Amino acid sequence: MSLEFLWYIPNQVQPGHRGDDVVDHHNSLATLTSHARALERHGWAGALIGTGWGRPDTLTVATALAAQTTTFQPLIAVRPGYWRPAHFASAAATLDHLSGGRVLVNIVSGKDNLAAYGDDEGDQAHRYARTREFIRIVRRLWTEENVTYHGEHFAVAGATVVPRPVVRGTRRHPRLYFGGASAAAEQVAATEADVQLFWGEPLDGVAERVERLRRLGEKLGREHPPLEFGLRVTTLIRDTTEQAWADAEAKVAEMAKGTGIMARDPNRHAAVGQQRLLDLAARGEVLDDNLYTTPGTFGGGGAGTTWLVGSAEDVAKSLRRYQSLGITHFVLSDTPYLPEIRRQGEQLLPLLR
Questions:
Q1: How many CA atoms lie within 13 A of 13 on its CB side?
Q2: What is the mean pLDDT of residues 330-353?
Q3: Interior angle at CA 156, CA 132 and CA 57, nearest 5
Q4: How far apart (Å, rounded) are the C-alpha atoms in residues 25 and 143?
Q5: pTM (whole model) above 0.85
């Protein structure tokens, strides 16, 4: 199975995300386009564009960048509740049609400022039951006509989406990525998602989750092609192993001060998957060969909680070990984002291909 390598584009209102360069017009079309075009030049398939209230709208950013590029694939993070399924299915299918089949979708069920846009959190079971319905309706609208669905959370009657998503080879519609580590989330992933994304956990944890999700899909009667797996992690590489660790420790020292651009991640939440990452520090500062857990101790959240650190050869070796467990989709990043697109595109990606 072919490998996919994506990056991350920081569509943030405030500059300096996770230590990024603070520049004027950091979230302008020109700046974001420079990131997307750099990704095309340096061998990346595309980039994750994150979502959340108080940030630029993800689908709008993705549409603008697709119009400015030719191969860039936006992995568009979306939230059920912010979007209703038929509305999103239509918008995403239109962008997929206009971009020649470049849309990827990441379904997010984590916490957000839901009240700001009139949504209701509900308990975990409610949240993932709603996500399951959202994915089912979207997939059916992309592949069927005159769809009628009456669920607990959403309903459509006689709905048909036009234009249709691009069908090419085995691709019937945009690939659906999903995250989450709770039992409720894993049931959704095992039966409804195309790709399960993991944070930067150690190899043993990833292996255990891959096997559990495969068994769960069989038990629950998965109806779609086999679930694929992805890794979302920070990769800090330098010319030498020693320089990489010196720079990683210097970054963490800035985080430990709790001020400035490396301050504690304000969006860090103790979801099941996030808590799994934070608990890793108790096992040691460095796990496997080069998985650095200390950033989470000083405020790193999400993909910034653990880092793979080393030379390009060191990090490539680690990523190949994840590949041996069944990981075929990699969403990597480090800050400052723009120069790291080039560094890792030129030094890391050739070793992985």
A1: 7
A2: 97
A3: 65
A4: 40
A5: yes
